Amino acid sequence: MTYGQVESPWPVPGSILVTEGKAFFAAGRQSFADGGILVFAVDPRSGKTDWVQRLDSIPQKGYYTSSALEFDNFDLLMQTGDGVAMSRWVFDRDTGKMSIDPWKAFVRVNTGNGSAMVPQGSWSYAPRNQTRTKTFSPKRPLVVYRDNVLFGCLENKQAIYRRDFDLEGGEQFNSKWITGWAGSEGSRKNGLAWRSQRLSEKATWTSELVGSKKTNPTVNAMALASNYLYLADSDGKLQAVSPENGRVVQQQQVGTPVWDGLAIAGKRVYMAMQNGRLTCLGNRKRSSK
Questions:
Q1: Contact at 8 Å (CB) between 117 and 108?
Q2: In 3-state terms, what secondary structure has residue 220?
Q3: What sign results for the dihedral spanned by CA atoms 29, 33, 34, 35?
Q4: I need a labelling partner for 107 at 20 to 30 A (CA). Which of 5, 81, 257, 286 fits?
Q5: pLDDT value at position 63?
């Protein structure tokens, strides 16, 4: 049962990835439930199956290793190198051979002109499991990225940062994450506990743009345009921020968006609101009459 309705044991949640002449999708929700997760590669024209892999295990074998921190049992598929990745599993695009690095919490992403190291699972909303960590919050901080630049929120979701990478030039970045014990200890001692902290260690700038004693708002949505970084907070304020220095250029009250409910297309800003409405901001198209 899902949302009160009967569901297939192997639904196809998320999206279909088409790359290099093949379509990839995953069916199922959890590797330990109903026979696991099936990952398919098919011909997009004929639907003929090229290969299928069953995922019915997890790499964690000991409770105290805690490599499951920020680990997703199911995730949207994405292309990485010669493979297709789902969470920390990677499937060879040609053969389906499966491999996994259980400690890898960041993935290298190149959107066309340089690479950035992005936290795994930033594009989905899987539940977090570090409830014993002092500074825990149920939702992961948002990130947006283009080429070798990443913008993200710190764990409090009130400060944002810009991180520039030079991976093509030889910069080394540690993608291995810490144990649950280390994260819990770091949280109590103001040390390393969250991936946003590692990313922001070498930030170009950091700016606290939201927050007040009365309402304590947080960044609920973030989107990157060509000239501005847009932020919408839980108090209903939309800010256009300079990507170069993190300063607010424009701001206005528009209403409270749903989590990650901000998109940009056709030189307009679209917001999915908590009241069920879709708001479009931008210049009205003039009539030809």
A1: yes
A2: strand
A3: positive
A4: 257
A5: 63
Residue 286 has pLDDT above 80, yes or no: no
Strand partners, 85: 78, 90
Pair of tokens at residue 106: 């960041």
Highest average pLDDT, of 26-35, 40-49, 119-128, comes from: 40-49
Fill in the amino acid letter for 18: V
Tokens of 85: 């990745």
Per-residue pLDDT at 126: 66
As to burial, measured by CB atoms within 10 angstroms (0-12 exposed, 13-18 middle, 19+ buried), residue 21 is exposed
Beginning with the edge strand found earlier in the chain, give each strand of the sheet holding 143-146 in spatial order: 143-146, 149-153, 159-164, 205-208
Per-domain residue ranges for the chain?
Answer: 1-59+73-98, 105-208, 216-289
Report CA-CA distances (Å) from 149 to 85, 116, 162: 22, 6, 7
The residue among 46, 113, 65, 55 whose CA lies nearest residue 88 is: 55
User: What average pLDDT does range 225-244 have in this prediction?
Assistant: 94
φ, ψ of residue 129 to 5 degrees: the values are -125, 15
79: amino acid identity, one letter:
Q
167 has pLDDT over 90: yes
Instruction: For residues 134 and 114, give the distance between their C-alpha atoms in angstroms, rounded to a whole number.
Output: 36
Report the range of poorest mean pLDDT among 3-12, 43-52, 56-65, 235-244.
56-65
CATH class of the domain comprising 216-289? mainly beta
pLDDT band at 131 (very low <50, low <70, confident <90, very high): low
Q: Is residue 17 within 8 Å of residue 78, measured between CB atoms?
A: yes
For the record, the structure tokens of 225 come out as 């345009």
Both tokens assigned to 206: 């950091």
Domains 1-59+73-98 and 216-289 share a fold: yes
CATH number of 1-59+73-98: 2.40.10.480
First to last CA, the chain: 54
Residues β-bridged to residue 89: 86, 100
